[in-house]
Amino acid sequence: MTHTLLQAQNRRAFLLSVLALSLTACKKNVVSFNSIDITGADYCRDFKLSDSDGKQRQLAEFKGRYVLVFFGFTQCPDICPTALARAAAVKQKLGKDGEQLQVIFISIDPERDSADLMRAYTQNFDPSFIGLRGTAEQTKQVAEEFKVFYAKVATGSSYTMDHSTLSYLFDTKGKIRLAMRHEHNAGQFASDIRQLMKQTS
């Protein structure tokens, strides 16, 4: 074997080893979430809705905090109270880091969800939770922006609401990061939020 051929083979072996180390390092940096990673999505960009004091709120004012958004309605029999109770449990599981998490509940039933009712409902789960509502048209616009489905369903002389159940998590720069599945528990939510905190700290 010639000296030149031996050098070429050694160089090739060296490059392959460097590539293998690089791939290993990349794998170590990959974060595996329980939730759906939608980083860079061209939706969930913002909302402009009123809180229980009539003040218009936007996503930008929560920069510096992680924001968890869920859509629902106060007369929801199971999904919405489960989602908000889970969010409260997540804050507890995060300990001191839970102070960095802002939970926002957006009404899809502004016809019945008054400002006072939204305040009482959200604060029943945690005093820091914020309930937002808008007109029927504003509700439609923000639901479309977040790709949220909702519809009235007649129940005798009244109605209930059918709606999608994902929660949305934003990072401290106000960028959408995760779509969190309703079937996951508080431990899985907290784990994903902790991973995102580590990733963005």
From TrEMBL:
<dbReference type="InterPro" id="IPR013766">
    <property type="entry name" value="Thioredoxin_domain"/>
</dbReference>
<comment type="similarity">
    <text>Belongs to the SCO1/2 family.</text>
</comment>
<feature type="domain" description="Thioredoxin">
    <location>
        <begin position="38"/>
        <end position="201"/>
    </location>
</feature>
<keyword id="KW-0186">Copper</keyword>
<dbReference type="InterPro" id="IPR003782">
    <property type="entry name" value="SCO1/SenC"/>
</dbReference>
<dbReference type="Pfam" id="PF02630">
    <property type="entry name" value="SCO1-SenC"/>
</dbReference>
<dbReference type="InterPro" id="IPR036249">
    <property type="entry name" value="Thioredoxin-like_sf"/>
</dbReference>
<protein>
    <submittedName>
        <fullName>SCO family protein</fullName>
    </submittedName>
</protein>
